[in-house]
Amino acid sequence: MKYSKQRELILKTLQENVIHPTADEIYHLARKEMPSLSLATVYRNLNQLAENHVIRKIESLDGSVHFDHNLCNHYHFICTKCHKVYDVPYDVAPDLANKVLAKTGLWVENFDISFKGICQNCKKFN
Amino acid sequence: MKYSKQRELILKTLQENVIHPTADEIYHLARKEMPSLSLATVYRNLNQLAENHVIRKIESLDGSVHFDHNLCNHYHFICTKCHKVYDVPYDVAPDLANKVLAKTGLWVENFDISFKGICQNCKKFN
DNA sequence: GCAAAAATAATAATCATTATCACTTTTATG
DNA sequence: CATAAAAGTGATAATGATTATTATTTTTGC
Question: Which chain A residues in 48-77 lie under 8 Å from chain B, judged by CB atoms?
C-alpha cells in the first residue's frame, strides 16, 4: 500500500468516530475536510484497510455494512431504532472459538457477533 | 396472512433444505415445481414469514442473506470457501443475552452470531 | 528527475432487493 | 352458492449500495 492523503483522512475519520460509521457516513464526514474526495475512493480504501486488518468490517443485522477501527476482540449491539452500533466487551463470552471447535470440530477463524435490541437512549423516548 | 400455494411451496422448499438457502436459491428450487413463480413473490413471502417468526433471516458475513427454518436458539458457522451455512448448537454459549444485560445494561431482543472459517468438507480438498 | 506502480475522481455498470400495478385468489358473510 | 373486500401474484420498473472502468494524477525507488 502506497501512502495517500485520502486514505489517511478516511482512517482518521473512522478513528475519530465512536459510532461505527458506514461507508457513506465516512464519505460525507471526510468530504468536509476534502471536498474533492470520491465515494469510490472511500469504498476502495475501507475495503483495502479491512483486508489488511487495519480496520474491521461489520455486517449488521439489517444488511447494512459498518466499519470499526477497534481490532480487539469484542462484540456489537445494534439498536433496531436508531441503528447505532455499540461495543460489547469480549468478556461476555470469551473463548467462543474454542468452544465451537470442541462441540463441532469446526475451526473458527473469525466471528461476527451482534446483538439486537433497543438502546438505552432510544428507550427514553418511547 | 391468507393462504397461498406459493407461500406453502416456498416454506416447504426452505424446510426441505438443510443448506440455509438464499432467496434466489429458493426461487430456482421452487420454480422446478411451479414454473410460473415470480422472484418478487419469493422475496415477499420470505420476508413475511420472517416477520411472523415462522422462519428466520440470517445475514452472512459476506453480506449475503440466507433463510433458516429452524427457530430454536442456535448459531451459525459460515464456510468462507463454499459459503455453506452450518448450525452450531446453542449450548456453546447459552444465556448470552443475560450476560450482555449484566455487563452493559442493554436489553437483547435478538442476536445474530456467526462464526467464520473453512468447513471440514472444504478442508479435505485443500 | 523519472519511469513504473499504485491511487484518484468521475461515472457507468452490476446486483440484490423493493415498489408498483393490473389482475387473480382467498375467505368471510349473507 | 354468490360476491365483494382483502390479500396475494407475476411482471417489470425502480432503488440503492457497492464495484468496475478509465483517463489522469501521486507516490516512490533508483
Answer: 59-63, 65, 75, 77
- The total number of residues written for chain B in this structure: 126
- Stated in angstroms, how far is A58 CA from D24 C1'? 33
Cell of B59: 445475514
Nearest to B59 by CA among B118, B123, B111, B120: B111
The CA distances from residue A85 to B21, B80, B111, in Å, are 27, 25, 13
Helix (H, G, I), strand (E, B) or coil at A126: coil
- Label the pairing between strands B74-79 and B110-117: parallel
Cβ of A105: how many Cβ atoms within 10 Å? 9
- What are the residues whose beta carbons fall under 8 Å from the beta carbon of B104, sequence distance 6 or more? A77, A86, A88, A89
Is A43 an interface residue toward B (CB < 8 Å)? Answer: no
| Bridge partners, A68 (sequence order) | A56
Q: What is the pLDDT of residues B2-36, one digit of tens each?
A: 999 999 999 999 999 988 999 999 999 999 999 99
**pTM (predicted TM-score):** 0.87
Q: What percent of chain B has pLDDT over 70?
A: 98
Judged by phi (left if over 0) then psi (alpha if -120 to 50, else beta), residue A2 lies in: beta
Q: What are the phi and psi torsion angles at B87 (to 5°)?
A: -90, 140
